Amino acid sequence: MKTFGKDYAEYYDVFYHDKDYAAECDFLEKIFQKYSGGVKTILDLGCGTGGHAIELGKRDYEVAGVDMSSAMIDTARNKLKNYKDIDIKFHVSRMEDVALPDKFDAVICMFNAINYVTSDDGLKKTLCNVHNHLSKDGLFIFDFRNGITSLRSYSPVRIKWMNYKDRRILRISETKLDAMEQLYHTTYSCLTFKDRQIIQEFYDKHVVRYMFPREVRCFLQRCNFEVNFMCPFMDLDVPANENDWNITAISNVIKE
Ligand SMILES: C[S@@+](CC[C@H](N)C(=O)[O-])C[C@H]1O[C@@H](n2cnc3c(N)ncnc32)[C@H](O)[C@@H]1O
C-alpha cells in the first residue's frame, strides 16, 4: 500500500481544506522576526502540495520544496502554475537524503512531516541534512506530534466526509498504536461517490513516530542545534506543555 500515493495526493488539499496556510505563514514570519537576523531563503522539507512554500513565495521569500512523494510534488507544481511570477524549485527526495547545492536562512518542516521519519538513524540523517542546508545562524522550525498526548488517547477509527466538485468523498482512518516503537500505523480507506454511486476506491498507509519533547531536544542538541523555544503550534506566546498535541520546535544551527 502506498504512502501519499497518486490518489491520496489528488485529494490531499480537499482532506485538509480547513487548514489555514496563510495564518500558518504569519506564525512562521513571527518566528523569523523573533529568532532570526533576517530570513530571505527557505527550504520546506516534506512540503507536500506546497501549501506553505507557495504562500511564502507569494510573500517574496525565495523558496525550495522537497518531498519524497512524486505525486504530492506533481500537485504542488500544478498549483504553482497559477502564480506566473513565483519561481519555486520542487524536488522529489527523502529528507534524510536530500542534497541541494544551496544554503538557506531557514528550514521548515510542517504539519508533522518529520514524524514520518520513524528510525533514529533516519532522524539523525535528517537533522545532519538540515544542518548542511542552513547558513550560519540559520533557523530550523518544525512541528511534531507530542508523545505525551499521543499515549494518553487517540482515535482508533475516524470518519470524515468531504464535498469536492460533483463528488462526495468518505475517508475512514483506522489507527493502531505500537507504544514500544512510538509508532502510529494508520490506514486511510477512501471512497469517492458521484450520484450516490462509488466511482473510486483507494487506500493509503501512514506510519508516524510521535516524539517526546525531551527526546526532540536531545536529538537537536546532538546534531548541533541550539533549541530556542518549544511552543504550542500557532502560539508563540507560551511554552509548550504536556497537553499540547502539536508542538513547534524552534532552533538555531550551531556552526564553527
Ligand atoms: C502531513 S504531510 C505535510 C505536508 C505539508 N508540509 C503541509 O503542511 O501540508 C507530510 C508530508 O511529508 C512527506 N514525507 C513523509 N516522509 C518524508 C521523508 N522521509 N522525506 C520527505 N518527505 C516526506 C509526505 O510525502 C507528505 O507530503
Structure description:
This protein is of the alpha/beta class and 256 residues long. It folds into 2 domains: 6-145 and 212-253, Vaccinia Virus protein VP39 (Rossmann fold, 3-Layer(aba) Sandwich); 149-209, N-terminal domain of TfIIb (Single Sheet), CATH 2.20.25. Helix content is 29%, strand content 37%. It has 7 helices and 11 strands. Helix 2 crosses helix 3. It binds S-adenosylmethionine (SAM). S-adenosylmethionine binds at residues 4, 46-48, 51-52, 67-69, 72, 94-96, 110-113, 116-117.
| H/E element sequence | HHEHEHEEHEHEEEEHEE
Classify the secondary structure makeup into a structural class: alpha/beta
Strand content: 35-45%
Number of domains as seen in the coordinates? 2
CATH class of the largest domain: Alpha Beta
Counting DSSP E segments of at least 2 residues, the number of strands comes to 11
| Second rung of CATH, namely the architecture of the largest domain | 3-Layer(aba) Sandwich
Provide the gyration radius in Å.
18 Å
Mean pLDDT metric: 97
Main-sheet strand order equals 3-2-1-4-5-11-10
**What name does the CATH topology of the largest domain carry?**
Rossmann fold
Distinct small molecules: S-adenosylmethionine
Indicate the low-confidence ranges by residue numbers. none
Distance N to C terminus = 44 Å
Q: Count the helices. How many?
A: 7
Residues in helices, as a percent range = 25-40%
